Each structure stands twice: as C-alpha cells, then as structure tokens.
Request: fold
Amino acid sequence: MMKDDLLKKWLNDELTDAEKEAFSKQDDYVINKGIIDKAKHFKASQFSAAYDFETFKDNYQKKSSVKHVNWINPLLRIAAVFLITLGVYFTFFNSDLIEVKTLMAENTSINLPDLSKVTLNADSEIVYDKASWSSKRSLKLEGEAYFKVAKGKTFDVITKSGTVTVVGTEFNVKARNDYFEVTCFEGIVKVSSDTIVRQLLAGDIYRILDKKFIQYKTVEVEPQWTNNKSSFKSIPLKDVFEELERQYNIEIINKNTDTSRLFSGVFVNDNIENALTSITKPMNLTFDISSPNQVLIHGQTD
Reply:
C-alpha cells in the first residue's frame, strides 16, 4: 500500500522531498515517468482520462504487462545479434584463411607454412588456414594439384569427391566434376570416397570417373602436366576437351562428335595446333580454329 500511496501522491504532485527521493528509487520509477512524459505530448481525436486513482492503476498495470512482454523480444534480438557477431569475430579474426587460385591457361607453385610444396594446374584453387596449420595440416582443393608434402603430422587434402590423407609423400589429386583421380608418386597415400577406401603405394592410381571406380598403375614419376603436357588413359573425349579448354582458355564447339568415345594419349600445353592434332587425328576428327578463342571439332558425317 505504501507504494500505491506514493504513486497517488506523485500523480497529484503532493510528495515531500523525502518521499520524492524514496519514490525515485523504486524499480518502476523510469517506466512511470516515461508514461507521464509521453502523455504530455500525446494528442488524439478521442481523449479519455483516468477519473480516479483506481482507474489509473488498472490501466497502468495493463500497460506495464505489455511493456514487460515488448522488452523481451528486443533483448532476445540483441542477444542473437551479439552471438552471431561473436561467432563471426572468432571465425574471421582468429583464423588466417589463405586462398590460391589459378586462371585458365595458368599454373603456379607455392610453399605451405611447413614448406610443403603445391603446384596448381589451370583453373584450380586451394584454401587453407595459416593460423592453425602447425596443429592441423589440412586444405580444400577444387581442380588439380601436385603435392610434395614435408614430413610431419597428418596432411589432408579435402575435395567434394573424397579425402586424401598422407604423412610425407608426393601425389597428384584431380577433382573436377565427376572426375576424381589420385596418383601416388612416392610414399603412402590413403584415399577415401564414400565407401571406397584404398591405400596407395608409389605408382598406384585411384580413379572414380562417372561414378565408376578403377585402380591401376603408372610408371611416371611425376604428373606430366607439370612438364607442360596433359596425358590421358581411356578418358571420354568430353573430359579431354574440357582440359584443352582450361589449358588454352578457349571454347570448343563439337559438330557431329561423339564425346563419349575414350581417348588415350597426350597433348602439349604450349601449342594449340599441335594439341588439337594430337587429339583429333587418332580419333578421325578434324578441327577449325574459327577465332583466337574458339575451335570447331568436326566428326565423321554419313
């Protein structure tokens, strides 16, 4: 009752100095004052007034309950924004993501923080966290890259098609569309894609092409593309032409060409006419370079 009496006297401007001090220390003083301050500036087409204290008290309690509910949602929103901001801070400011990307007709080599070496083929990309590299050697790859891994902790290459795990070795990873291939040149490589898990030794090749798995051998000691050549063994012409487009930054248009035919061979990456001849001649195809960036491939017509 003492609280209600003070409120009534405050509304009637009848508080003594001591009562004013006591009233200003109440928990709901700010809300009470805010209601009255706003009421001074309020204008409406229909005006209603509280004729006695009990009526005002009822209205006040209703408004207070509404105020209580409305205060919760903004606070929740503020808390949510704070948590999201905190997450973004720890993600971006406590990490040092490094991205290396090559363009069409380009390749490049870089050294990782542990002095492992990565050579990226054309139109390829790797991303890794430099800040956590000493505790977790892991990177993401899109495209094709040749790795010479320094000995140390486990080294993971993560692709959309599968994961390659090594300690210290040399290997090549190709991850393009429905073409996933890992070649081990030195040491031991563990490859896992869905339920297909294999351990590769030097000379072993793991391939999943158009959802079909095979494993075979090579006598090469490094990928030929690092020596400016692209090699293929029983690969559909579709994939061969796509690689040709990457290496020369061109567009290939096929005319009456069965691109599902399998091609085995090599083309050079520094002479477009020689490269086209290497592909088309053994497949009984012809070509026209219609512009600097466009090539027409012609199949046999009846």
